Amino acid sequence: MHGSQTGPDAPGFPAAAAPGLGAVRELDSAVTGCRARPRLVAWREEVARVRRRAFADWEYWARPVPGFGPADARLAIIGLAPAAHGGNRTGRVFTGDPSGDVLYAALYDLGLASQPTATRRGDGMRLYGVRITVPVHCAPPGNRPTTTERDTCRPWLARELELLRPTLRAIVVLGGFAWHSLLPVLADAGWRLPRPRPGFGHGAEALLLDPGGVRRVHLVGAYHPSRRNMFTRTLTPGMLREVLRRGAGLAGLPAAPHRGHP
């Protein structure tokens, strides 16, 4: 696994390493050592070196950020990639940035997270029946991974979903990039997708069947809780909460409000 063609610095590393991983914990560990795309490696490390003034005293994570949540989750949430000064700093997906503030607050409101804010690894945050992950595990320049970077990273997502498959019942997909990254992964894994393939939209839904036509997984689309979407009110906290409530219901998770939201 450490030869020139399949070591962590090689473009083929995710494709070589991911299929043989037998547990989510092993996958998370392997992801954090990946250096397959030089542009992403250079960017994440440069951000950690320069830092933002508000985080000058932080030692940035500056590695690929693994998924977060239990290995037997019934609901998966798929985002885009770690934020340069969020997950790339804290080492946990959707942690320490405005998008994460909105997402974790909504999960807490529904009783799916142990606390409303996620500030750093080891802050006590726990998710209940939910796992959050991304198609691209390194922070990309301008929040825009290239097609090659997305495709190189794809085997991690494919294996993660395969490991979650026994319990997974629904997936909430945050944004068009995640939606269009996810559908080929599911199709390649043998899930039956509707034809034509479902288009992305906030509240869009699709039902997938496994190759035997027995097990079902529900897809639910949602606008990404980016700073821009929240500022323009393309997405509101209530809109996000309702989509997550729908996903939780389809997954068979109780979504019991912590703070009296209807």
UniProtKB/TrEMBL annotation:
Pfam families: UDG (PF03167). Residues 66-244 form the Uracil-DNA glycosylase-like domain. InterPro entries: UDG_Type-4/5, UdgB-like, Uracil-DNA_glycosylase-like, Uracil-DNA_glycosylase-like_sf. CDD domains: UDG-F5_TTUDGB_like (cd10031). Signal peptide: none annotated. Gene3D superfamilies: Uracil-DNA glycosylase-like domain (3.40.470.10). It comes from the Bacteria. Keywords: 4Fe-4S, DNA damage, DNA repair, Hydrolase, Iron, Iron-sulfur, Metal-binding. SUPFAM superfamilies: Uracil-DNA glycosylase-like (SSF52141). Belongs to the uracil-DNA glycosylase (UDG) superfamily. Type 5 (UDGb) family. This is Type-5 uracil-DNA glycosylase. It comes from Streptomyces caeni.
